Amino acid sequence: MPYLTRTTPAASSTALRTGLGVPGYAHPLLAPTEWGELTRPGTPLHWVVLNVAGGPGTRPDPHCLEAAGRLSNAGVRVLGHLDLARGGSPFGEVISEAHRYLDWYRVDGFLLDRCPAERAALPATRRTVGALRALRDQAHIVLGHGTHPHPGYAECADQLVTFRGSWSDYRWSQVAEWTADYPPDRFCHFVQGVPLGHLDEALRIARWQGASTIWFTDRTDRGGRTDPWESMPGYWDEIVSRIGTGVSE
Question: Does the predicted TM-score (pTM) go above 0.85?
Fold first, then answer.
């Protein structure tokens, strides 16, 4: 199968624990159950993205403040959502939004969504990441390429999103050979439209391709009309029990 491509075990893979990276639920007023479930004991979370209004918004949102505070108190890493627009977002605008996230929500790092993947954009991305790390000590930086980027991006971030797409594409996907030089905790996969009956297969693909942070959902974008990441999967308990310590009913 195409996803059986990793031949060399990545460093530290024996100590790895798969966990969930939440790309960004809908506003807490629209998805209170989803936000509440994130602090449920035993939920194997690596991080949760806070996307207030395509970014931090224009003023502190009390509902997002409460949601972010609950996660922080539970020891969950909260990331601010910054849209790089494939390199089209002005540097100053990105840094200004990062300041607001830090000032208002005390985030632990950032997901740089729609991050460019080509080599030519690497210097500009390095500049942005360097500025973000200067703003917050030990900021956790995730580059949201959605595909395998030039290998140089792996040296300037904590994690890379190397797949973002549909289950029909994921089950026949191939991992870039250069990723074998890095441990699985450097890579994230976001997959929509995964049926419950194929959940175990999807988890095997992530393991074989060397990605430890995942988000699998049975939601779909309905041809681009909806955001499949805004709500929790219909099989939330099943995926938590498979990769975590289990959940109580």
Answer: yes
